[in-house]
TrEMBL record:
Belongs to the protein kinase superfamily. CAMK Ser/Thr protein kinase family. PIM subfamily. Signal peptide: none annotated. It comes from Mola mola. This is non-specific serine/threonine protein kinase. One of its GO terms (molecular function) is protein serine/threonine kinase activity. InterPro entries: Kinase-like_dom_sf, PIM1/2/3, PIM_Ser/Thr_kinase, Prot_kinase_dom, Protein_kinase_ATP_BS, Ser/Thr_kinase_AS.
Length: 265
């Protein structure tokens, strides 16, 4: 992988096709690598839209993830960074694009009630976040929209995307500025204005499972604290409810760790 500083070099190597999405920070296009037609996602991030530390962080985190996987399409659960370009007013990230794929939000809505598949996917997401934790990476925004599902495989496979708010963390780091989806913020953020990487990721996994299983309800921490949302979801197995309770414990120290979640039935 190289860093290039000229748009012509990017255009010589990659062809852009349709727009896949517009996010808070930029736009993402489908495309392919010209020499072998490898499908790629091309993310344009205008430098004026993002504070420099986050911009650097997204690239550094993606490089760390890709380093562990040789940048190839393999077993890695987060998508990998193939190339990046620092050109004029923007950064261009070229990412692996699983084909075909859809985000977990759409996937759940289209298959209302297919619990078994969702459980497999959730296990993969837990494994992916543990993989990140082992590399000291805090994603900060695990949610349905930030998980792509590869649907062509016999068993659907989850791939984490959008490391735009991510950072490297130390186990004892306490954060006092919130980055992420505000309605999913862990309770300690509302109570004390602080949060830590591990318990926040576990809380977000609870929110993810809650939303995946409740096709009608979207999660809001404030409503959950006022007991307007509960983990008693109709038709859910005792194991699944237990999993949810262990993720959505109000006190961060009482939440399970990712390792404990991996060992739950
Ligand atoms: N590697 C990828 N493969 C396929 N599609 C992707 C990929 N990365 C992003 N997308 C699509 O582009 C959309 C926007 O991507 P992403 O979330 O990374 O951008 P963002 O600007 O950080 O967005 P947001 O503000 O919503 O967090 C995603 O919802 C997804 O549909």
């Amino acid at each position: 992988m190289c860093v290039y500083v000229c748009t012509a070099e990017f255009e010589a190597r990659y062809q852009e096709l349709t727009r896949l999405g517009v996010g808070g920070f930029g736009s993402v296009f489908a495309g392919f690598r010209k020499n072998d037609y490898l499908p790629v996602a091309i993310k344009h991030i205008p430098k004026k839209n993002v504070v420099l530390s986050l911009l650097c962080s997204e690239v550094a985190v993606m490089l760390a993830i890709s380093a562990g996987t040789n940048g190839s399409v393999g077993m890695s659960l987060p998508v990998t960074l193939l190339d990046w370009y620092d050109v004029h007013q923007e950064l261009i990230l070229v990412l692996e694009r699983p084909v075909p794929c859809e985000d977990l939000y759409k996937y759940c809505k289209e298959r209302g009630g297919s619990i078994e598949e969702k459980e497999i996917i959730l296990k993969q997401v837990v494994d992916a976040t543990k993989y990140l934790e082992d590399k000291c990476i805090f994603h900060r925004d695990i949610k349905l929209e930030n998980i792509l599902i590869e649907t062509s495989l016999d068993v659907p496979r989850a791939r984490l995307i959008d490391f735009g708010l991510s950072c490297f963390f130390k186990k004892k780091s306490v954060y006092t500025v919130f980055y992420g989806t505000p309605k999913h913020a862990p309770p300690e953020w509302g109570h004390f204005g602080t949060y830590k990487a591990g318990p926040t990721t576990v809380w977000q996994l609870g929110v993810l499972l809650f939303e995946a299983l409740n096709n009608e309800a979207s999660f809001e921490t404030q409503r959950f604290l006022k007991k307007k949302l509960t983990t008693n979801i109709k038709g859910l197995s005792e194991n699944c409810q237990d999993f949810l309770r262990k993720c959505l414990a109000i006190v961060p120290e009482e939440r399970s760790t990712l390792e404990e979640l991996q060992n739950l039935p």
